[in-house]
Design brief:
CATH architecture of the largest domain: 2-Layer Sandwich
Shape: rod-shaped
Order of helices and strands: HHHHHHHHHHHHEHEEHEE
Largest sheet: 5 strands, mixed
Radius of gyration: 53 Å
Distance between the termini: 71 Å
CATH topology of the largest domain: Heat Shock Protein 90
Helix content: over 70%
CATH superfamily of the largest domain: Histidine kinase-like ATPase, C-terminal domain
């Protein structure tokens, strides 16, 4: 039974009590009129201990008080249900009105208390529900008509019922008793429901509390795992940063030293035959060395080639090739089919470093005299090839530079392959985040 069902129980109790309260007032009024009409007042008074002075006043007062109770109930249920100050005031009003009703009827019916206390139990806090249940039973016992007649002269509805014949008396007494019994039964059912609902709420609260405790425990475990993952991520970040720094320094330093080494070798072959040309070559080597030192410092501080900060990607590549050819005897040819090499920073860094590392390896390990660098656009990717005419490599072992070149490309979700036929070929495909500004 939900809140809607308990509402129906209250409506039933209200109807039962309206009928039960109205019955004594209406019945006494009608019977009094009949006694007067048949002039049997003397014999009737002789059989009773007490009679009401104004049966009509009892009837009117009872009806007015019932109307007040009905209005209070409707306002409480449908108008001011959320205003607890009004709810409590209306409950107090119902209790006082019910007490007046019982006194008007000389306590011939006191079941109205059950209806009042049912409303009180429904609205008051859980901790005092049982107190009101016990209080309702106590007041009900203390307002019993038979109990009060011991010390007070009260008129009794049974005296008026006895005015009729035996069959009519049975129907009247039986009907009135049925109303009283129904009222008690419905009140008991109401109390049982309230207790069960309260128990259900307690069980639900306990269940929710256990669930909350479990979730808190899971959350603590998750937080602990998150801390561990954060520590791992921090360590991975440091490792990644160290590797990136190592790549940058390796690319710049290796490229610079390779050029210096090749240039010095050329100087050694010319120093005896042509000192003046050797001197000029050494000046070029000195300049490349200074540029390399600046590039290394730049790489350490910002990890981005200085040339890419000052020049476009294509210009930076051409400048790198120009510097390399100026200090070595190798020829480097550059061909670019894409009109505008302008990409994101990480993409430009990778393209520049792959070309730089490939040229360095071609000179250092391949002993190449000619190198061809080709860039072309293929769909949404950039196809980069560096081919040399060096000695090649039959058993390739990935060194530091080659390994990190591959890592750079994989970070952009690209691929790189190597072929050692007629020299050495680096073939890389790098996905590019092409935008309008790149088209």
């Amino acid at each position: 039974m939900g809140d809607k069902g308990i509402g129906y129980v209250k409506y039933i109790m209200l109807i039962i009590n309206i009928v039960a309260v109205s019955f004594p007032a209406i019945f006494i009024y009608i019977t009094t009129e009949k006694i007067c009409d048949f002039y049997t007042a003397r014999s009737f008074i002789g059989r009773t201990n007490s009679i009401p002075k104004k049966p009509d006043w009892i009837l009117v007062t009872t009806i007015l008080l019932l109307v007040c109770l009905l209005v209070s109930f409707l306002l409480r249920e449908f108008v001011y249900r959320e205003r607890m100050s009004f709810v409590y005031s209306s409950l107090a009003f119902d209790f006082l009105t019910s007490c007046v009703l019982m006194m008007v009827l000389n306590f011939n019916y006191n079941g109205i208390l059950f209806w009042v206390f049912a409303n009180i139990i429904y609205y008051v806090q859980d901790k005092v529900k049982m107190i009101f249940m016990l209080l309702a039973i106590l007041i009900y016992v203390c307002t019993d008509h038979e109990f009060l007649t011991i010390n007070y002269h009260l008129y009794s509805i049974n005296d008026y019922i006895s005015y009729y014949n035996a069959n009519t008396q049975q129907y009247l007494i039986g009907g009135f008793n049925v109303l009283e019994s129904l009222n008690i039964i419905v009140f008991i059912l109401f109390c049982i429901y309230v207790i069960q609902k309260q128990q259900g709420i307690i069980e639900k609260v306990n269940y929710l509390y256990s669930q909350l405790s479990q979730k808190n425990e899971e959350l603590e475990n998750a937080n602990e795992e998150l801390k561990q993952l954060a520590d791992i991520k921090e360590k991975m970040g440091k490792t990644k940063e160290r590797n990136r720094l190592a790549r940058e320094i390796h690319d710049t330093l290796g490229h610079t030293l390779t050029g210096i080494s090749a240039g010095i070798d050329a100087c050694l072959t010319m120093i005896d035959s042509n000192p003046q040309v050797t001197k000029k070559q050494l000046e070029v080597i000195a300049k490349v060395t200074r540029d390399g030192i600046g590039e290394i410092r730049r790489s350490v501080s910002e990890l981005r080639p200085d040339a890419l900060d000052r020049l476009s990607l294509e210009s930076a590549i051409r400048k790198m090739i120009e510097n390399m050819t100026s200090v070595t005897q190798a020829e480097v040819f550059f061909q670019c089919d894409s009109e505008n090499l302008k990409f994101d920073e990480d993409e430009e860094n990778t393209i520049y470093r792959v070309i730089q590392e490939s040229i360095t390896n071609a000179l250092r390990h391949g002993k190449a005299s000619k190198i061809w660098v080709t860039i072309r656009k293929e769909n949404s990717a950039l196809h980069l090839q560096i081919q040399d005419n060096g000695i090649g490599c039959t058993d390739m072992k990935k060194g530091f530079g080659t390994k990190h070149m591959q890592e750079r490309i994989q970070m952009l979700h690209g691929t790189v392959s190597y072929k050692s036929e007629n020299g050495f070929l680096v073939d890389a495909v790098i996905p590019i985040r092409w935008g309008e500004e790149y088209d």
